[in-house]
Amino acid sequence: MVWMNSMEEAIFAVENAWPGITQDAEEVSASELHYQAMIYNRLRIDGGIPLKQLGMNVKMLIKEPVSLFFQEEAEKTKSMRSVYSPYKGIQPTPDIVIFNHSIDIDWRRSNSDTTMVNMLSMIEVKVSEFTENRLTASDIIKDIHKLAAHREEVESLGATVLPIMMVIDAAHDESNKMLSTSIDEYQNVAYQNRIKVFHHSSSYE
User: Mean pLDDT across the stretch 19-47?
Assistant: First the structure.
């Protein structure tokens, strides 16, 4: 088994998997969760990422967030949590995570401190899956800010991570596809926040 040990290797793996990801996106119409599973599969097959270094829907616990974004999110959700809940703070859940092999195959929420400092890359996936409704820039920008905040939390622990935003505009009808202005808007925000973007627009006519 060849372990992945750097962010450079992680992005290389994602780039290798991307053609297969876009091919799958052209052949299947499904929910965002299904696309996440297809992306995971391509990262394993075409990206060559070892099973022990690739997680999906990885829930983490940040008890005392340092980023303003997560502080505000934690405040919003405070009233919805039980007084007796053992989970205080914020629980970000990246759609897909590529780990350093030092994670030692344990990325449970109870192991959050170790999980946070052993990520090579974290990926958020946004897919157009709604009938008669376009994917908008604002739909994606919140995830971009979430990725940037999560990176800030990781850096506060003395580590670093590469955040990736994957957008698959899978709408079949032109009337439901993203507007070019929306694409430009969200990609500009991603650039400002140093978030790597992979964008695919379906070729359906």
Answer: 93
Q: Is the dihedral of CA 135, 141, 33, 46 positive or negative?
A: positive
**Tens digits of residue pLDDT in 11-20:** 999 999 999 9
Separation in Å, CA 27 to CA 47, 165, 172: 20, 21, 11
Radius of gyration of the chain (CA): 17
CB neighbour list of residue 90: distance below 8 Å, 6 or more residues apart:
61, 62, 65, 70, 73, 74, 77
φ, ψ for residue 59, nearest 5 deg: -80, 130
Domain that holds residue 171: 7-201
Q: Are 55 and 95 in contact (CB under 8 A)?
A: no
Whole-number Å distance between alpha carbons of 67 and 157: 12
In a domain, 55, yes or no: yes
User: For position 109, what pLDDT does the model report?
Assistant: 78
**Where are the strands (E) in the chain, listed by range?**
54-56, 96-99, 119-127, 162-169, 196-201
Residues 6+ apart with CB under 8 A from 95: 36, 56, 57, 123, 124, 125
Number of compact structural domains in the chain: 1
Contact 81, 88 (CB under 8 A): yes
Residue 164 lies inside a defined structural domain of this protein: yes
The pTM assigned to this predicted structure is 0.91
| Residue 107 banded pLDDT, cuts 50, 70, 90 | confident
Q: Which residue has the higher pLDDT, 170 or 21?
A: 21
